[in-house]
Amino acid sequence: MHFNFRSAYAIYRREMARAFRTAFQSILAPVLTTSLYFVVFGSVIGARMEPVAGVPYGAFIIPGLLMLTLLGETTSNASFGIYMPRFTGTIYELLSAPVGVAETLTGFVGAAATKGLILAAIILGTATLFVDYQIKYPLLAVVYIMLVAASFALFGFILGIWADSFEKLGIIPVLILTPLTFLGGTFYSIRDLPAPWDAVALANPIAFLVSGLRYSFYGTSDVPIAVSLGLTLGFLAACVIVITIIFRTGWRLRE
Amino acid sequence: MSEPILSIRGLTKTYKGGTRALDSVDLDIRPGEIFALLGPNGAGKTTLIGAVCGLVRPTAGTITAFGQDLSRDWRSARARIGLVPQELATDMFETVWRAIAYSQGLFGKPYNAARLEEILKSLSLWDKKDAQIRALSGGMKRRVLIAKALAHEPELLFLDEPTAGVDVELRKDMWQQIAALKQRGVTIILTTHYIEEAEEMADRVGIIQGGRILMVDEKAAMMERLGTTEAVIDLAAPLAVLPSEIAAFPVELGEGGTRLIYRGGNGQGGGRAQVAQLTQALTRANIGYTSLDIHDSSLEDIFVGLLGEKEAA
Question: Residues of A with CB below 8 A from B148's CB?
């Protein structure tokens, strides 16, 4: 298989430059929002809450809040990255260049995932200002965050190709991802829900992601880590297949 | 004759909804030439370019560039093709330098600052290299698009309406740039609404209408074959019929016999020589005239005439 590194790097570099050009929107805004969550739920309310699964409440919500920001920002970044060239017409250059699906994904999705990782690092750094926490399996946490960032960057890429308006671009992150993350155990353990809601909550795939990240932090989770990892890898593979089909057929890209 | 740099056979594109933008187009482009594709709006010019450059998926037909089948060897072929689109589509918040450096990398070329500098200087964009594209005038933005298309040093360059919306001075400046590219061996295919542009620059001209190529020929040969000279001679006194000395010429009477109209020649000077003979014949026949106006047909006259014939057929 042919892979053009220079082309992939050109796309990656441009996407990263775009993120730094819009640093307030890309980085500062989510950090500010997450900090507010830490202040309200972590420090103020968290101080009066019982520990959950042996973890102080302020520390317990860190993986969920991280996931909340990671999913929203990575999806939005990747979707915006491919939607804007379609919207402005500059996509002609990408389509006429000697680049295929591999270079395009490496560039766009790699950049979106990198931005997600930078954001995650900043949020974890910010969290230390408000709550005490320690990461039990740091390597697993890094791998898991990278996996989730890459998966949702791919998902965002699909969203950016599917959307034919700015409204549609915002629908999925705002109306689906954010509510599912809130209801996916960000602020509570699914085990604490009364029946049948504990079982219903497991119909929410985001609950598996939050649970997986929480395991890497504290060694405690609502579902086995293998299930969370398997689901994430499955989602990633499904997104790659969908994008490959999109490139093969030219759907919404080539007339 | 050398192998064509681009060879199109039976190229057909039918859009969703049934609009047939290209209908079995056959076309060969020779290395090093400037080929002008002329046609009215909606004729299929942009679709044809899009099909070669990978923006449009052909319904049928084959495209061979540099001897390679584009559907199979698209990577290596596309690395040697450049495109300047009709629309001013650029990343408005990017600087000129970063925009063309991106294009260079996107097409797989190593970063070459000296080459980028040379391109920007040749397009009079060097002093704008750090400016955001949104701050540039329309003409400058179009130059940026040309610079982006040249950043990977293409051997085959498509210019889709390169001077649309550009003032006369800048247009002539761009013609010089295009001529300079030809000097460097770049093969250029341009579409234009300005027939004057094709007349000025093209080696060969193709006329397309309704997705079909009506004619492809050397510009000079087309002018010779289809060009005519028209002479309007205002007579001093009206004529009821054409005298025998005059009737041998391709002339007719108009304006109640006060005007003699000549239409003939080959658009390459033959007509003018015959008009000189006609005026001598008028003198010999003692027919006086007060004015003489001669007009050689332009490429535009040929273009309009061809399209008119096609529509009437």
Answer: 93
List the one residue out of B194, B203, B191, B202 whose CA is nearest residue B161: B191
pLDDT for B267? 61
Q: b/e map of A155-178 (b: 16 or more CB within 10 Å)? A: bbbbbbbbbeeeeebeebbeeebe
B91 → closest Cβ in A6, A90, A250 = A90
Q: How many residues does chain B have?
A: 313
> Would residue A255 count as lying in a domain?
no
**CB-based contacts of A106, cutoff 8 Å, min separation 6:** A8, A11, A12
What structural domains does chain B harbor? 6-224 (3.40.50.300), 228-296 (3.30.70)
Q: What is the pLDDT along chain A (255 residues), one digit of tens a residue?
A: 689 999 999 999 999 998 888 877 777 888 888 888 888 887 788 778 888 888 988 899 999 999 998 998 899 989 999 999 999 999 999 999 999 999 999 999 899 889 888 989 988 998 898 888 889 999 999 999 999 999 999 999 999 999 999 999 888 888 888 888 888 888 888 888 888 888 888 888 899 999 999 999 999 888 899 999 999 999 999 999 999 999 989 888 888
Q: How far is B99 from chain A (nearest CA, A)?
A: 9
pLDDT digits (tens, 9 = 90+) for B251-278: 889 888 899 988 887 666 677 888 888 8
Predicted confidence (pLDDT) per residue in A209-241, tens digit = 999 999 999 998 888 999 999 999 999 999 999
Question: Which residues of chain B are within 8 Å of residue A6 when distances are taken between CB atoms?
Answer: 105, 108-110
Global ipTM: 0.88
Task: Please indicate, yes or no, if residue A192 is contained in any of the structural domains.
Answer: yes
CB contact under 8 A, B54 and A96: yes
Residue type, B171: R
Q: Do B75 and A88 touch (CB under 8 A)?
A: no
| B6 Cα to chain A: minimum distance (Å) | 16
Inform me whether the C-beta atom of residue B75 falls under 8 Å from chain A C-beta atoms.
Answer: yes
Do A113 and A149 form a contact (C-beta atoms < 8 A)?
A: yes
Answer yes or no: pTM beyond 0.90: no
Q: Give A240: exposed, middle or buried? Use CB within 10 Å, 0-12, 13-18, 19+.
A: middle
Q: What is the residue range of A93's domain?
A: 5-249
Q: Do B78 and A17 touch (CB under 8 A)?
A: no
In a domain, A254, yes or no: no
Partners of A100 on chain B (C-beta within 8 Å) are 75
Residue by residue, DSSP assigns B101-116 as: HHHHHHTTPPP-HHHH
To probe the interface with B, which of A14, A15, A93, A104 has the most B CB atoms within 10 Å? A93
Q: Best mutation site among B106, B133, B150 for testing chain A: the one with the most A CBs within 10 Å?
A: B106
